[in-house]
Design a protein that fits this description.
By secondary structure, the chain is of the alpha+beta class. It has three helices and five strands; from the N terminus they run ααβββαββ. The protein folds into two domains: about 90 residues; about 90 residues, Ribosomal protein S6/Translation elongation factor EF1B (Alpha-Beta Plaits), CATH 3.30.70.
């Protein structure tokens, strides 16, 4: 048998140490690259499963909330569409005068004067003040005011003044109305004055 010298033994030990080192490095790399990501993926998948299970348990509540919110959205959308139908693109104060005059005639209110101010641009719409002076009984004035709210055109009464003397059946009335037009999604463009029609 051959004798193994000291240098061969040292070389053999170095090979063993190198083999152990390579084994440790391979095990560490395998753990870092395969096992740890798999554990993280399992934990993440577990969390997702828990979320899905919670969603399944909450599904009836979520459906009910969705139904309520959808109904509210339909209601708001309908209200917005109704307002938009009542607001024309142009001031069209002549058409408004026709409607107001017809309403006044129906309610037996005599209109003596009708004039408008300059249109004023606001954020998302434009408005114009219209002054109406007329004479009528208290009943006819009340019916006229009630009828203004029922007109197809969106308007509001900014100011209403009645004058009264003793033992009279006809009262002078002055009303300042505001009519709206030119709805936009953004700031309203400057509007141009329209002629009295």
């Amino acid at each position: 048998m051959g004798v193994i010298d000291e240098e061969c033994r040292r070389f053999g030990r170095l090979l063993h140490y190198a083999g152990v080192l390579v084994t440790v490095v391979c095990l560490t790399a395998g753990y870092s690259l395969l096992h740890a990501p798999a554990v993280d993926a399992i934990a993440e998948t577990s969390a997702q499963i828990d979320e899905v299970m919670q969603s399944v348990q909450n599904a009836p509540v979520i459906r009910e909330q969705h139904r309520i919110v959808s109904a509210k959205l339909r209601e708001v959308t309908t209200r917005i569409a109704n307002v938009q139908r009542r607001v024309p693109q142009g001031a069209d104060d002549g058409e408004f005068l026709k409607e107001v005059t017809q309403l006044a005639q129906n309610e037996k209110l005599a209109i003596n004067d009708f004039h408008h101010e300059k249109p004023e641009a606001k954020n998302g719409y434009a408005e114009m003040q219209v002054s109406v002076q007329g004479t009528g009984s208290f009943r006819s004035i009340c019916a006229f005011v009630d009828g203004l709210n029922k007109l197809a055109r969106l308007s509001k009464i900014k100011e209403l003044t009645l004058s009264a003397e003793d033992n009279v059946t006809e009262y002078p009335m002055t009303a300042t109305l505001v009519i709206y037009f030119a709805l936009t999604g953004d700031d309203a463009e400057p509007v141009q004055e329209t002629r009295n029609g």
